[in-house]
Write a structure and sequence with these properties.
Strand 6 and strand 7 form a beta hairpin. Helix 1 packs across helix 3 (about 45-60) and helix 11 packs across helix 13. The strands form 2 sheets. The protein has a 5-stranded mixed sheet with strand order 5-2-1-7-6. The protein has 4 domains: about 1-75, no CATH class; about 85-220, Beta Polymerase, domain 2, CATH 3.30.460; about 225-320, no CATH class; about 320-395. The chain has helices at about 20-30, 40, 45-60, 60-70, 80-110, 120-125, 155-160, 205-210, 225-235, 240-245, 250-260, 265-275, 280-290, 305-320, 320-335, 340-345, 350-395, and strands spanning about 115-120, 140-145, 165, 180, 190, 210-215, 220. With about 400 residues, the protein is an alpha/beta fold.
């Protein structure tokens, strides 16, 4: 559960210095209304402004508005409530435009006998077509099609007035097309053929086969597929497991799935065991339970590894030095993991033995670059450590005025 005992007591001073990330998690947490320390903290104007800034940086301002309106409307200063309400209304309008755009794209695809599947944030909006999931913010719309129809989708978008929003070469062989945008729309559209570089974690055919038809050409994934995708997108695709990241928007997604009785967590864990994603599921659920007070399903066991992951992630989040080290280590690791190479080899139809051999060759070629990267990380890390140590010594040696 969210640890409110770690929050400073309102009468002890230093409220403005309250870590906004932890306070934001406390406000968004399940059962936040029952936490006695929050109203006094939120009534401080400085704390409220810091909280709003943190929510904006995390992309959860609309969710913060709903939490404040439900539980803390008498505590948060009125100017801050007005700003949050304005942001929530703007996000609701954006999500309505996204829902209309998804329906239009699906209709155009249906004319070619193609179904599109709403993913991630788009799936939240499609599932909540009445309120447009106004709590969920996004800047791009992710849609999946059967890989056999993947190459036809740019023409579908172009006929609707969309054009490429990027000319980067990295989209040439990718699991989704380059982003597309239409004039006047504050979001981009990405058409997927797979869910990520690790495409074997959730096969598109299985996801499409269990999806529910919402309208012409439009499918909504089964709840367990949506929850599992949210987990692997954060923990595997974005390397949350290795980097120890705690994005509040991802935490909020997982917490809402944990509170949704329609999600079959036994099915999720059985699938995770089959594809080797149990650590990712355990880490995501442990983080959502710890920081947002989400219930842990009986099918999910949070062991010592999950608890250690959350503790390490919080330590990294609170330390710029640890965050820097984790980021640099992850970037260096990309030279060894070669996920993109493995994905492209799989697209070429190479067998397992051929893929392993070619991956080994790619890694051998990259090994000198990896060695240089590691030396650079160690050298720069050592300089940063010396600088921090020197600053601390000067503070100790300088007497107070």
């Amino acid at each position: 559960m969210t640890d409110l005992e770690a929050l400073p007591h309102p009468g002890a001073g230093g409220i403005a210095a309250q870590p906004s990330f932890r306070l934001l998690c406390s406000v968004l947490a399940c059962g936040a209304a029952a936490r006695p320390g929050l109203p006094a903290l939120l009534s401080d104007p400085g704390t409220a402004r810091s909280l709003r800034a943190c929510a904006a940086a995390e992309g959860v301002s609309a969710a913060l508005h709903e939490a404040v309106a439900a539980h803390f409307v008498r505590d948060v200063p009125r100017p801050d409530r007005i700003v949050l309400a304005t942001q929530h209304a703007a996000n609701a309008r954006r999500n309505r435009a996204i829902l209309d755009a998804v329906g239009e794209i699906a209709g155009a695809a249906a004319a070619r006998a193609v179904d599109v599947v709403a993913l991630k944030g788009a799936a939240w909006i499609v599932a909540d077509s009445a309120a447009h999931a106004a709590w969920r913010e996004m800047v791009d719309v992710d849609l999946l099609v059967d890989p056999r129809h993947y190459d036809a989708m740019p023409q579908v978008l172009e006929r609707l007035g969309y054009g490429p929003a990027s000319d980067a070469d990295r989209f040439r062989v990718n699991f989704h097309h380059r982003p597309y945008r239409r004039a006047g729309m504050p979001f981009t559209v990405e058409i997927h053929r797979h869910l990520g570089w690790r495409h074997e974690l959730l096969d598109p055919a299985a996801l499409i086969g269990e999806a529910r038809r919402i309208g012409p050409g439009l499918l909504l994934p089964a709840p367990w597929c949506r929850a599992f995708h949210a987990i692997v997108h954060w923990q595997v695709q974005d390397f949350g497991l290795q980097r120890g990241t705690l994005p509040v928007r991802a935490l909020l997604d997982i917490a809402r799935f944990l509170c949704d009785g329609r999600v079959d967590w036994a099915r999720i864990m059985a699938h995770a065991r089959a594809v080797g994603a149990v650590p990712a599921c355990e880490a995501a659920v442990a983080a959502a339970a710890t920081l947002l007070g989400a219930p842990v399903p009986a099918a999910v066991t949070i062991g010592a590894a999950g608890r250690r992951h959350v503790a390490r992630s919080l330590a990294r989040h609170d330390s710029p030095a640890r965050t820097w080290l984790a980021t640099q280590t992850w970037r260096a690791g990309t030279l060894w993991r070669c996920e993109k190479v493995a994905y492209r080899l799989a697209l070429d139809g190479r067998g397992p033995l051929a893929r392993r051999g070619l991956l080994a060759l790619h890694r051998a070629v990259r090994l000198p670059y990896l060695a240089v990267r590691i030396v650079g990380i160690v050298a720069r890390g050592g300089l940063l450590w010396l600088r921090v140590a020197g600053t601390r010594r000067r503070r100790v040696a300088t007497p107070p005025p």
